[in-house]
Amino acid sequence: MAVPRDPHTVTYEPPPLTPRELADLDVDAHLADAERKQAFVTPMFEHIAPRYDDFTRLFSFGMDARWKGELMRWFDGVTPTHCQVLDVACGTGDLALAAARARPDAQVFGVDAARGMIEVARRRIAPGDTGRVTFATGDLTRLELADASADVILAGYALRNVPHYGEALAELRRVLRPGGHLFTLDFHCPSNAVWRELFLGYLQLSGGIVGWYWHRAPIIYSYIAHSIRHFVTPEEFHRVQQLAGFDIVCQQQYLGGGITLTHAVGRP
To answer: Each residue of 83-126: pLDDT tens digit?
Structure first.
């Protein structure tokens, strides 16, 4: 898998919107409009990049590490020693760096739309891995990678945040070799209506408190609840995965379907 550009030439640019400007936007209108969604999502992630890891640990009561640990156990059980690993919406590089540790002979490439996330991820690369682990900014719905160039794709909290998750799945299927593995971990909209409202209510309240305390903009973290409400159930997500050319190997739901971990393979 060839990295599409020199990943070390990208320089950080200030986010185009301040937290206050983000707070003044109609987040539900932006999430409902595919043409405007990324204009809200990317600046938001730029702002949270420096504290993203702290937030995920705090917000999930440490469960995020366990979910990612389970994903990596699945990864370890099926991934060959020599492989090309792609981590999309890689954030600060948790999954990409875990894959590099698990497979010392693998080539690992992480891509994220937020430059701030990529800068944090680059600082976390182990000194001996600088030649085989790379990070760059990019759009996971339009990857500058060849067809069938990845053996494994990791997608943690990725597809919920793109304008068209079905098109994003089709793009991932394009760059994944037939029989290759896709591991996704994400929030989903719980099927049970009562639990859905309780779950989203907690996320919106707690996220708003942290967003106000850290950024004076509650929407920075209460965004998660809004984005889940505009997303799909685990069952609908799996149906669209199959339409995009994946076969589901296994899936594990947590928090009543609010979080789902899925292992799928690319159909020949």
So the answer is: 999 999 999 999 999 999 999 999 999 999 999 999 999 999 99
CA atoms within 13 A on the CB side of 172: 36
Domain boundaries, the chain: 34-187+233-266
CA–CA gap between residue 55 and residue 40 (Å, rounded): 19
Place of tokens 């990725």: 158
Q: What is the pLDDT of residues 7-48, one digit of tens each?
A: 333 333 445 677 777 767 788 888 888 778 888 888 878 877
CA angle, 232 then 235 then 236, to 5°: 45
34-187+233-266 — its CATH code? Answer: 3.40.50.150
